[in-house]
Amino acid sequence: LVLRKVETISAFKDQQQLLFAFCPSVQTVEACCFEDCYSMRRFTAKKLTTIRRYAFKRCVSLSQITVQNVTNCESYSFCYCHSLVELSFDCLLGLPDALFNFCKSLAQINCPKLQQHNFEAIKDCGNVRITTQTNSEIDKMAKNQKVSNKKLRFQEILVDEFRERKNFVKLSRQIKIMSQTRRRLGQLRQSSILK
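That's the Leucine rich repeats-containing protein sequence above. Prediction below.
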């Protein structure tokens, strides 16, 4: 999906074949906009500032999304996004309740300007770390191990199974075996001719 001039998106719910969205001018993703877009892996919108309720609900394959300019994010926007690992909100001041409800792979949320530390935002997510600027409130919460001023570093994380790569490896092995078999047959013929 490529939308170059659209500023507000509202109607792609249940588009299960959608793999990516490139929307350079989009500023707002409306409520339920991409809900149940199970196959969508990437959402790129560098001007994005507002994400409404349930906007990316059950986008289970979503692993990359540009949220650095987001200033307003509503509850449940990313619930059940199982492939999200790390997000960086450079402008967001607070995390609403249940923002990442059941995001089981989520490991880190970077929010340098975060003023409210709402652990209900990461309820039922597992072990999520929120990184932000150091202040006395963070020092108190650091004992909780959910808030820190130090970012975790990640290696590349495989989010999906690469069928094409597996097929290519399988085909390569078959070609290698066939080549070895031909070479061996050639050697056998050569040795039988010499005898």
